[in-house]
């Protein structure tokens, strides 16, 4: 089974980081300029610089890679339409998490797991690279969040969980493609972008 090494994972994360950093002066220009190579004239080699620092950050703290993935997810997905937000709420529910006695969806999963030694021991050993361990853990029912459990309740979703658990190479390819596709979502019309005070909300909402 092919594994995604830190350097390989960093390539995808660097592309995401650079796309998040690019700030175009108008929506029309943003859709054109938010791409790899945007800084080739004003800051040659910036991709290599960002790649180096992202790799360094991941080496120092394995959570940095996941944090960057979460950042781009929130940056691109924060403006979901109300109907879809309602659908997510209906599917995931608002009750306590089924794995632990309290609702801990907003807590760090590692901190939560550390409070439950028997839970932590069952997890596949953390590695230095992204891989398909999540799907193995999900099938073994040792996941943390209610939304994770929901993947096992629908036939199509369960099929994908099993597929990715069995085929790490497929997950590597699909994850890379999905991250690049997500990073290409355009900014809202007439928006120049902004630096958020809280990553999960646009500033004018708070």
Automatic annotation (TrEMBL):
<keyword id="KW-0479">Metal-binding</keyword>
<dbReference type="GO" id="GO:0140825">
    <property type="term" value="F:lactoperoxidase activity"/>
</dbReference>
<dbReference type="GO" id="GO:0005576">
    <property type="term" value="C:extracellular region"/>
</dbReference>
<feature type="signal peptide">
    <location>
        <begin position="1"/>
        <end position="30"/>
    </location>
</feature>
<keyword id="KW-0106">Calcium</keyword>
<feature type="binding site">
    <location>
        <position position="78"/>
    </location>
    <ligand>
        <name>Ca(2+)</name>
    </ligand>
</feature>
<keyword id="KW-0732">Signal</keyword>
<keyword id="KW-0575">Peroxidase</keyword>
<dbReference type="InterPro" id="IPR000823">
    <property type="entry name" value="Peroxidase_pln"/>
</dbReference>
<feature type="active site" description="Proton acceptor">
    <location>
        <position position="74"/>
    </location>
</feature>
<feature type="binding site">
    <location>
        <position position="75"/>
    </location>
    <ligand>
        <name>Ca(2+)</name>
    </ligand>
</feature>
<dbReference type="InterPro" id="IPR019794">
    <property type="entry name" value="Peroxidases_AS"/>
</dbReference>
<keyword id="KW-0560">Oxidoreductase</keyword>
<keyword id="KW-0349">Heme</keyword>
<protein>
    <recommendedName>
        <fullName>Plant heme peroxidase family profile domain-containing protein</fullName>
    </recommendedName>
</protein>
<dbReference type="InterPro" id="IPR010255">
    <property type="entry name" value="Haem_peroxidase_sf"/>
</dbReference>
<dbReference type="InterPro" id="IPR002016">
    <property type="entry name" value="Haem_peroxidase"/>
</dbReference>
<feature type="domain" description="Plant heme peroxidase family profile">
    <location>
        <begin position="33"/>
        <end position="184"/>
    </location>
</feature>
<dbReference type="GO" id="GO:0006979">
    <property type="term" value="P:response to oxidative stress"/>
</dbReference>
<dbReference type="GO" id="GO:0046872">
    <property type="term" value="F:metal ion binding"/>
</dbReference>
<keyword id="KW-0408">Iron</keyword>
<dbReference type="GO" id="GO:0042744">
    <property type="term" value="P:hydrogen peroxide catabolic process"/>
</dbReference>
<feature type="site" description="Transition state stabilizer">
    <location>
        <position position="70"/>
    </location>
</feature>
<keyword id="KW-0376">Hydrogen peroxide</keyword>
<dbReference type="GO" id="GO:0020037">
    <property type="term" value="F:heme binding"/>
</dbReference>
């Amino acid at each position: 089974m092919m594994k995604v090494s830190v350097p390989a994972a960093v390539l995808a994360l660097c592309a995401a980081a650079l796309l998040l950093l690019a700030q175009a002066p108008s929506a029309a220009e943003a859709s054109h300029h938010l791409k790899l190579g945007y800084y080739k004239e004003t800051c040659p080699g910036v991709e290599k610089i960002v790649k180096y620092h992202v790799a360094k950050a991941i080496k120092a703290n394995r959570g940095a890679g996941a944090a960057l993935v979460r950042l781009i997810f929130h940056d691109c997905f924060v403006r979901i339409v109300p109907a879809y937000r309602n659908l997510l709420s209906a599917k995931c529910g608002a009750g306590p998490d089924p794995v632990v006695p309290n609702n801990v969806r907003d807590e760090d999963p590692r901190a939560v797991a550390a409070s439950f030694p028997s839970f932590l021991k069952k997890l596949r050993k953390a590695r230095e690279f992204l891989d398909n361990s999540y799907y193995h853990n999900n099938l073994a029912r040792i996941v943390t969040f209610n939304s994770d459990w929901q993947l096992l309740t629908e036939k199509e979703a369960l099929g994908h969980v099993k597929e990715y658990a069995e085929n790490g190479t497929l997950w590597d390819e699909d994850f890379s493609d999905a991250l690049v596709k997500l990073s290409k979502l355009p900014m809202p019309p007439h928006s120049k972008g902004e630096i958020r005070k809280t990553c999960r909300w646009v500033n004018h909402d708070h």
